[in-house]
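Ticket reopened. Same input as before:
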Amino acid sequence: MKHLTEYRDAELVQAVLVKIKRTVSRPWVIMEICGGQTHAIMRHGIDQLLPPEIELVHGPGCPVCVTPLELIDKALTIASQPEVIFTSYGDMLRVPGTGRDLFSVRAAGGDVRVVYSPLDAVKIAQQNPNKQVVFFAIGFETTAPANAMSVLQAKALGLTNFSVLVSHVCVPPAMHAILSSPENRVQGFLAAGHVCTVMGFWEYLPIAQKYQVPIVVTGFEPLDIVQGILMTVRELETGRYEVDNAYTRLVTFEGNRPAQAVINKVFQVCDRKWRGIGTIPASGWKLRPEYADFDAENRFSVGQIHTEESVLCIAGQILRGLKKPHQCPAFGTLCIPEHPLGATMVSSEGACAAYYRYRDKND
Ligand code: SF4
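Engineering reply: fixed in the latest deploy. New output:
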């Protein structure tokens, strides 16, 4: 398959690994931002093929992982109501709230449906005028355009029975939060290619300059990832702190301007709570006042629900690059994918799930 098999070519990957080994002269800590990249690194053993000087740490770019527990509880409260059809991407159904998940709401008779697009949820609202249809609109910049489109579509159709439970977060403020922490270990970033497909990479220039870190836009196949690491290491070794693009087949500097316009039409910047990390100022999006009628938090009066995280879970430290999953005392014992304590174990993009699936506990 074009643009896939060639990026998994073992000989090409090996050639880049040789270049990395020749380039690196001292230890560097590099964070891959996206959970999809974390899983690709673990699945292909890339971290074990790198020279020992390079340590990869795993960033907060897993939308399920950073969605606050209290928002899951709000979703559960809404989905339990008899007049509601609650729609979501499938990966949110197994994420535990306080004591239960959306699957258990469905098992108890709730109408919880998996959709592949928020526009499917709009169709369900059209087909069920006597029901309230709610879409669980979580994610980073990648899913925001489609979620914004669903609100515009519902408004254009005059639907009064469609709303969205929003928890959108954005990558650049999380990078600021990581880099400005006194505990920070990260010296370079692999930026998430799909986020940059939408947003471009102009937002990263001030970050690279302010914190003196190289940032390389990177894809998700093995060759993409080792190429991103090579470009990052070259910058680190030569003292350059620039934003570079290793994903040119999809990402441009400006990104997808029409998609950005749709986001800006429907959403405005707000403070957001990140699971395990806490509130990061101006790190997310909420509906603009003119679309408040489509806000499920207002419609179902769940804005006051607040929930405490498990004290055992160290996901927040993992997502900031301070610890690795197997350093969590609950990893593989109290916390496994079938009985997750934290979202980084349940999510298909979570770092804990990646280590559990692809690594021996003692690796
Ligand atoms: S192993 Fe489980 S409890 Fe530990 S950090 Fe990961 S998700 Fe949290």
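The longest strand covers residues 278-287. The two ends are 33 Å apart (CA to CA). Please confirm and we'll close it.
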